Amino acid sequence: MPEVTSRIGTAGHLRRILTLGLPLVGSHVAQFAITLTDALMLGWYGVADLAGQVLGGTLFFVLFIMGSGFAWAVMPMVARASGAGEDAQVRRVTRMALWLSLLFAALVMPVFLFARPLLDAMGQEPKVSALAGGYLALQGWAIAPALVVMVLKSYLAALERTQFVLWVTLAAVALNAAVNYALIFGNWGMPELGIIGAAWASLAVNIASMLAIIAYVIVSTPKHALFTRFWKPDGEAFVTVFRLGWPIGLTNLAEVGLFAASSVMMGWLGTVALAAHGIALQIASVSFMVHLGLSNAATVRAGNAMGRGNGPELRHGAWVVTVLSLVFAVATMLLFVLLPRPLLGLFIDPADPARGEVLAIGTGLLAAAALFQLVDAAQVMALGLLRGVQDTRVPMVIAGISYWLIGITISYVLGFTLGWGGVGIWLGLAAGLGAAAVLLMVRFWRPGGLAWTLDQPVKAPGAAKGSSG
């Protein structure tokens, strides 16, 4: 067989990455804007309600991102199958990912329904714990539609059909803001529900998004017939998705758990510190959504190259998307250092008596966040590339060691043993992310590693054959 080469060129790779990646970036930013809107509006409603939403929203996100492992497994598997022209396999793995996601949602619902005792056991302030518990008892029901949306977004992204994903997410942002405005503050004749109003808005938005994206998939991709005989089990594809998806879910859990643990530790410092942490985390997370969208694009492009057996194209594209992500990281570093107070001030009512203290704490946290922009971008990009070549188990181990053994330990030591407070906790986050970035990048790029062994067609691990389902 003649040697496979990359003929696209740097400009071609950049164009394809941006064509695929910008709608994904937009959809991630828009999806995050729903949470951001909750934080903005609740910050203006009251610091205690904001702290409750930070705590409750963090727990919801931890379980949601863990369950998203099966959805994220869809992206490289569908990209590889599409690149190899295997339409039946596209249908099978996507359908079983939906099954696994719904099963996961059912298993974690009790955590949301009985969240308050769990939060009390974590040493949170009783008022904040009560607010978060009430929020989760309603918000928790959004886990199933949210995971269905995530699976179908991954499916469409792998097929490079991302425009509708962006538009439906933007519509969800507008709907969430409107329902929040009505129910948090009691506008337009609606009851004033505070944090519970934000939970109702989130549930309504996730259900509406799910119905919209299901309708689009049925109409736009009839050849895959995802929902025809949806009830029919496919054991082989089920196991294939599970084997690839559970390490991704645990890797996600390790990373988001790092930030969740930081929220718990910030809660030990008090309500104001937790609110400042929540605001700073919201701001830092906006920039992370850009890197996540580019990482998803890297996964799809790597999966397509894998299906075609084109190692040079994979490596060239990986280099282009990594540099693009790092350039954006440098820009956000400057923003966090130069304009911390204007960014933080967007979230707090000027008349709130706690405003000054929140801004003072938040300024230090954003300075720490600037330090980990580069490493955060590098680690999520490496994860995207490794998932594109369907390498998930070793990255899971690397993530667990980096985020928890290194990151949490240093956060606790700096924050409490040395008395550095919130800034010390955030510097520990940077240390954990930095360790992950180095180890994951080395795994992908090391001579003779995964990026250098894909010059011939590669069969996906455990790939199911045939056209069952």
TrEMBL record:
Keyword list, A-Z: Antiport, Cell membrane, Ion transport, Membrane, Transmembrane, Transmembrane helix, Transport
One Gene Ontology cellular component: plasma membrane
GO biological process, one term: monoatomic ion transport
Membrane-spanning segments: 17-34, 54-75, 96-115, 135-152, 164-183, 195-219, 240-261, 267-295, 316-339, 359-385, 397-417, 423-442
GO molecular function, one term: antiporter activity
Entry's localization field: Cell inner membrane
Membrane topology of the entry: Multi-pass membrane protein
Pfam family, one: MatE
CDD domains: MATE_NorM_like
PANTHER family linked: FMN_FAD EXPORTER YEEO-RELATED, MULTIDRUG RESISTANCE PROTEIN NORM-RELATED
Name the record gives this protein: Multidrug-efflux transporter
Organism, scientific name: Profundibacterium mesophilum KAUST100406-0324
